[in-house]
Amino acid sequence: KLFFTDYGNAAKVERCDMDGMNRTWIVDSKIEQPTALALDLVNKYVYWVDIYLDSVEVVDYQGRKRHTIIKGRQIRHLCGLAVFESYLYTVNSDNLTILRINRYNGTDVQSLARLDNAKEIRVYQKRTQTAVRSHACEMDPYGMPGGCSHICLLSSNYKARTCRCRTGFILGSDGRSCK
């Protein structure tokens, strides 16, 4: 799945399949400007920062079990969000500090470091990487991803795929080749 935020006409947190199909709103109320988003892949939770409401909130992948992690002035101007173990990591764009917040109770907010021009944060650690299994977009014997001549996108699960074409091309009737 792909998870993303939108604060156009109606602010929301959404999810869809990797090919853009099955788009679903998972949060669409009591939300104003959701920006940064992070996933807990193990427990299947979605965390986001709302910069208008000065809050960090969480829901499960279906939009249930919503609650506020932390709210208020101390977390103004947040951008970027990452989850690792018991903490959320984020960047305060006002003073360029990296903050660590206890994700279970919103306490223990600590400033860890200051970085010039930081706007995003990621955690790279072996335990945060999901196991890779064979999938529908693997290279075929001819070197084409999933048998697609241009672009292969995973669909509703790792066994299904959708072929797409680069700009200026159209998908052929075989659903794989681009012309």
Automatic annotation (TrEMBL):
LDL-receptor class B repeats lie at residues 1-43, 44-87. The lineage of its organism: Eukaryota, Metazoa, Chordata, Craniata, Vertebrata. The gene is Lrp1b_2. SUPFAM superfamilies: YWTD domain. It comes from Sula dactylatra. Pfam families: FXa_inhibition, Ldl_recept_b. GO terms for cellular component: plasma membrane. GO terms for biological process: canonical Wnt signaling pathway. GO terms for molecular function: Wnt receptor activity; Wnt-protein binding. This is LRP1B protein.
